[in-house]
Amino acid sequence: MPLHPQAQVIVDFMNDSGFTFSGKTPEELRAGMGVTAVPSPVALQSITDRTIPGPAGEIPVRIYRPSEGTLPVVVFFHGGGWVIGDLESHDHCCRVIASKAECVVVAVDYRLAPEAKFPAAIDDAWSATEWVVANAAELGIDASRLAVAGDSAGGNLAAVVANISRDHEHVEVIHQVLIYPVTDGACDRPSMSENAEGYFLTRGAMDWFHGHYANAESDIIDERYSPILADLGGAPSAVVVTAEFDPLRDQGNDYAAKLVASGVEVDHVEYAGMFHGFFSMDMAVDVAVEAQDQVAASLKSAFAR
């Protein structure tokens, strides 16, 4: 099907604005994201900023709490190609998940490339997840009901952390939320060509992101960079959101299929007519609400188990 009419309006606006990754520096793109951040209308009981110890210094985190009591927890990693994005860019997304899934969300402002290349983001993501478990009592959370989540490059980090957790008895991730995730450093699937231009995220942008994140071409065959290369047996259950007009569509679809083939319970929907980034656009795109409700229902089900 063609782009959904509401999605078409947004894509046309972005295309008409002349936005491009080409020729931009990471600093310019980061500043641009800050300017476009829209305040979220979702109110929660508390939202707290703090820093936690990390492998290379303090890591900023933002803790979202929807209500009193001991709640399940989601550790969230923002998207942005490992190069851009921060706590502000994904504030609305985290508020929505906390509110709809009735859980605490801990958003992690991990180190960005190219200042901190692979695997710095993973090291921070894993360290933050360990910290959440170790400080469960202080945070008022139930560490036995721990999920990880992320969109795009954040979905990559969530998938990798979920896989790492299988080998660590002190951290048990029971569910993973992968929103149009990067799962393969090799940009060679059909959707990369079919949706290479015109739908906000482009193949050129992905090449730009990988060029800043990777130290060398050999990094892309590391399963911490390309989790689709990992043995996924025993991985936590998952909810996977993909979009029809997304260069990353096939990476997400193939990862969901490999999880299923490995015996993992997966709730996967490819949203027809949607593009990369739609999940947080519920104020303009009705289908975003459907995807948010899918993720919330999946989390609630996993936490109930």
Would you kindly provide a brief summary of this structure?
The chain is 37% helix and 22% strand. By secondary structure, it is an alpha/beta fold. The protein has an eight-stranded mixed beta sheet, with helices on both faces.
Characterization of this structure:
This protein has an 8-stranded mixed beta sheet, with helices on both faces. The chain has helices at about 5-15, 25-35, 90-100, 120-135, 135-140, 155-165, 190-195, 205-215, 250-260, 285-305, and strands spanning about 45-55, 55-65, 70-75, 105-110, 140-150, 175-180, 235-245, 265-275. It is of the alpha/beta class. The chain is globular. Helix 3 crosses helix 10 and helix 4 packs across helix 6 (about 155-165). Strand 7 (about 235-245), helix 9 (about 250-260) and strand 8 (about 265-275) form a beta-alpha-beta unit. The model has no long low-confidence stretch (mean pLDDT about 95).
Distance between the termini: 37 Å
Q: Label the structural class.
A: alpha/beta
Work out the strand percent: 15-25%
The parts where pLDDT drops under 50 for at least 5 residues are none
Rg, alpha carbons: 18 Å
* Principal-axes shape call: globular
Query: What is the typical, i.e. mean, pLDDT?
Result: 95
The SSE order reads HHEEEHEHHEHEHHEHEH
Total of DSSP H or I helical runs spanning 4+ residues: 10
How helix-rich are the residues, as a percent range? 25-40%
| Strand order in space, largest sheet | 1-2-4-3-5-6-7-8
Largest sheet: 8 strands, mixed
The beta-strand count equals 8
Supply database-style keywords.
305 residues, alpha/beta, eight-stranded mixed beta sheet
